[in-house]
């Protein structure tokens, strides 16, 4: 039976589509990049599946992408003979936006009334397939999943609903046909039915795509005879295999957008090649903003593994540690089996060596950024600092390097975070330790009585407000031979020997005077505290609660309690 269903787009999808239909994104050309990118992914998947499953009944002899134009109908079709989609896939993948963070994005867009800001947001988010509605008022997708009999047709005008239907006799793979908006026909800039326009867009955005992107062009000679000519529009050169000095930054940027599904340029590009016993090429990118799912459990890592130009897997956790999960890119290793599994990769010594080199390279790139491009480093730190600090705990081998590149807020300057090195350089004569305080917010820390004596002394205190801060300061313990000392723990001894000698008699007297009060308080508060003692740390507050030197800090206590321990 031919099941025809009219389904509603998910509410969030509908809102995004609204934005697309009314084209808030000024660079409409990129719809073609998105379609080609999807087609290329589908071809990668098919090739891989056919390599792994030898029984799969599919034709992989001429994998390619075709662009077809019908000038009369004003349609543009992008076709691939890749993996295709089942009917369920279509409803799941095309009818809904699975991307985490969609709701937050829409909320932000609603809040910012300003069009440029919305444009920026959508640019950061990327909308893939839906970008077709910037240039088309009707889109038809036809697809047949490799190895399956029946196909599916999907159609929508990008308003509230779409129609899915079973269809017979479709070739394997996917075709997407756009009915171009008539109003664009008048403007040469947006004439997506024009050959030169398509050629230009493909060259600019998709030249590196590893599959041929073909277009059939028609020429009519003076006698009226038409001849057809099939041309390949892209050079198909794997960017990572080319010499660094032969690749333009613009090409790197487009490649980054293809693999990351991001719409903005990367912050840093790292291109490296290793020769010798284990040959590989790596092309890595540090994005210029954090993904929405950076701190979500199922968040993905961004490095793809290729073996001699063949795509093997996305999200290759063996190549990048968790704390650098935001790094995107490609590693092409020459001497691995195409069938390699994730489990085997994790154990592979060569891969472990590659990973060590990649991590070192990423961290040293950040260090260079810090030294030479302060503004870029700042962006990096704002976006990824919280994740990078996890490395202080996870990655013992690179602790030194990590300690060099981290920044933390401090009482020195409310607007400018400091490196540990800069803190040490500002330390006062006679200051032995690096002081810090952890807490939920800067305001809470600054108003805390614990900090009073330090402020009075003019000592700088690091203001640590991320939950991970608790963990690394404990584990690291010291920097540059100076111990990291919490202002909220144990006995603080801020006075020098001379000062102590001066105040000694007075202190003895105070101890005597206050002895009855202290023992009375200790008795009264026996359930709540271990001891009540006279303190020299306060200047204006009458009392404060401190932890024992070996106790957990309040935030850590809360964290453990939240984890049910
Ligand atoms: P993204 O590519 O970022 O996942 P898209 O909106 O571009 O988002 O595509 C959504 C999903 O639809 C893809 O992840 C893929 O699973 C599926 N898809 C899109 N185009 C194709 C295609 N040509 N062949 C097979 N699957 C496709
Ligand atoms: Mg896509």
Oligomeric category: single chain
Q: Would you tell me the overall average pLDDT?
A: 86
Low-confidence residue ranges: none
Q: What is the first-to-last residue Cα distance?
A: 56 Å
Describe the strand arrangement of the main beta sheet, using strand numbers: 1-6-5-4-7-3-2-8-9
How many strand elements?
19
The helix-and-strand class reads: alpha+beta
Helix share bin: 25-40%
Strand content: 15-25%
Question: Which ligands are bound?
Answer: adenosine-5'-diphosphate, magnesium ion
Give a quick account of the main beta sheet: strands, pairing sense, barrel closure.
9 strands, mixed
Tally of separate helices: 18
What's the gyration radius in Å? 31 Å
> Which geometry do the CA atoms define?
elongated
Subcellular location: Cytoplasm
Family: Belongs to the heat shock protein 90 family.
Region (A): 1-342
Keywords: ATP-binding, Chaperone, Cytoplasm, Nucleotide-binding, Stress response
């Amino acid at each position: 039976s031919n099941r025809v269903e009219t389904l509603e787009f998910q509410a969030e999808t509908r809102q995004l589509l609204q934005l697309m239909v009314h084209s808030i994104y000024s660079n409409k050309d990129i719809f073609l990049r998105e379609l080609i990118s999807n087609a290329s992914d589908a071809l990668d998947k098919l090739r891989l599946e056919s390599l792994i499953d030898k029984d799969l009944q599919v034709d992989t002899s001429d994998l390619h992408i075709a662009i077809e134009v019908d000038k009369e109908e004003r349609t543009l079709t992008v076709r691939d003979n890749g993996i295709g989609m089942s009917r369920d896939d279509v409803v799941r993948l095309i009818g809904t936006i699975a991307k985490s963070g969609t709701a937050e994005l829409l909320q932000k867009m609603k809040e910012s009334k300003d069009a440029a800001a919305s444009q920026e947001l959508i640019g950061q988010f990327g909308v893939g397939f839906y970008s077709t509605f910037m240039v088309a008022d009707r889109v038809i997708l036809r697809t047949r999943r490799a190895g399956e009999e029946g196909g599916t047709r999907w159609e929508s005008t990008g308003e509230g609903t779409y129609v899915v239907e079973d269809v017979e006799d479709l070739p394997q793979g996917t075709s997407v046909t756009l009915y171009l908006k008539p109003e664009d026909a008048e403007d040469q800039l947006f004439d997506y039915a024009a050959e030169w326009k398509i050629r230009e867009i493909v060259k600019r955005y998709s030249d590196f795509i590893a599959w041929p992107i073909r277009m059939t062009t028609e020429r009519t000679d003076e006698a009226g005879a038409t001849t057809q000519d099939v041309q390949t529009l892209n050079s198909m050169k794997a960017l990572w295999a080319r010499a660094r000095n032969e690749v333009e930054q613009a090409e790197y940027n487009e490649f980054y957008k293809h693999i990351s599904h991001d719409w903005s340029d990367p912050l840093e590009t790292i291109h490296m090649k290793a020769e010798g016993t284990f040959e590989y090429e790596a092309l890595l990118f540090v994005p210029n903003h954090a993904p929405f799912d950076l701190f979500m459990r199922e968040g993905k890592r961004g490095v793809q593994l290729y073996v001699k130009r063949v795509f093997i897997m996305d999200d290759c956790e063996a190549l990048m540690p968790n704390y650098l999960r935001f790094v995107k890119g490609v590693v092409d290793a020459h001497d691995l089996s195409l069938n390699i599994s994730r489990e085997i990769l994790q154990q592979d010594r060569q891969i472990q060596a590659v990973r060590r080199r990649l991590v070192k390279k990423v961290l040293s790139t950040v260090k260079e950024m810090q030294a030479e491009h302060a503004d870029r480093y700042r962006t990096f730190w704002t976006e990824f600092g919280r994740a990078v600090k996890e490395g202080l705990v996870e990655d013992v081998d690179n602790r030194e390097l990590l300690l060099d590149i981290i920044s933390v807020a401090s009482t020195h300057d409310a607007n400018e975070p400091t490196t540990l090195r800069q803190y040490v350089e500002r330390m006062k004569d006679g200051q032995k330790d690096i002081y810090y305080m952890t807490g939920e917010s800067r305001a809470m820390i600054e108003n805390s009585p614990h900090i009073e004596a330090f402020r009075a002394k003019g000592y700088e205190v690091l203001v640590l407000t991320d939950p991970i801060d608790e963990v690394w300061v404990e584990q690291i313990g010291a920097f540059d031979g100076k111990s990291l000392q919490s202002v909220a723990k144990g006995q603080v001894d801020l006075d020098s020997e001379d000062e102590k000698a001066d105040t000694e008699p007075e202190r003895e007297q105070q101890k005597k005077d206050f002895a009855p009060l202290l023992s009375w308080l200790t008795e009264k508060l026996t359930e709540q505290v271990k001891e009540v003692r006279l303190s020299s740390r306060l200047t204006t507050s009458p009392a404060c609660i401190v932890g024992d030197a070996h106790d957990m800090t309040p935030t850590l206590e809360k964290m453990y309690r939240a984890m049910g321990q």
